[in-house]
Specification:
Length: about 290
Amino acid sequence: MVSSETLFWETMEKLKALGASSILVLPIEKMMEWIAMSFNTIIDWNSCTAEQQRQLLMRPAISASESITRTVNDILDNVKARGDEALREYSAKFDKTTVTALKVSAEEIAAASERLSDELKQAMAVAVKNIETFHTAQKLPPVDVETQPGVRCQQVTRPVASVGLYIPGGSAPLFSTVLMLATPARIAGCKKVVLCSPPPIADEILYAAQLCGVQDVFNVGGAQAIARAGVWYRICAESGQNLRAGQRLCHRSETSGEPASGRCGDRYARRSVGSAGDCRQRRNAGFRGL
């Protein structure tokens, strides 16, 4: 059995490969304990002490170091210069996957749908209906007031033209993130909605994208996905938004320098409606907080 110390240093090396120069978390003994308990270990919650329960619920925070910023900037520049060739190299390096077709075909999405149970599909449909009900009620009515004769003041809400969704990979498919990001964008009237996720993309995510009307899905993750989305559909142009669940390298790709086709706007998953609307008078003011 691999010791907790070995797991710790292996994890450190992986983080360093991603450009993380330091980790700001727990004392090293606690960190090793956390890592040892995190590797697919079944934990009896009731047998844990209050402190152990607190540790289990924590995410190790990686410092936003200059090395991460440099790594992300290098990725952005490389993707801008070399395009899809750079994407395939990063997929092999970070995701350990060889990607032949970057865009997921309609046939692949249909096949993914066939592999899912009817019970899960029904549950997703119910979730979409609930999300639609809430966010439809949240839409802002237009305001048109004549403050004095000949003077009219208006507040008009318009959707952004294009939206890019980033869905993280990992051990659990975050299809709920797809539902909670894509549905408000559709309700708001965004004309173009695309999705990027690290390969291989889970069937649940592909089906959720289809269910919510996402036009295109791409087999690409990380900072390189954010960079390439700007080139593909000008999502990072002034009128567009990137929506994602939080992840350090992706966040740095959206906030460091100028991405591939202009400055990116960013909205976290919990602020999904803020991403879908654009208020001219007070930008996104009525849509931001959930």
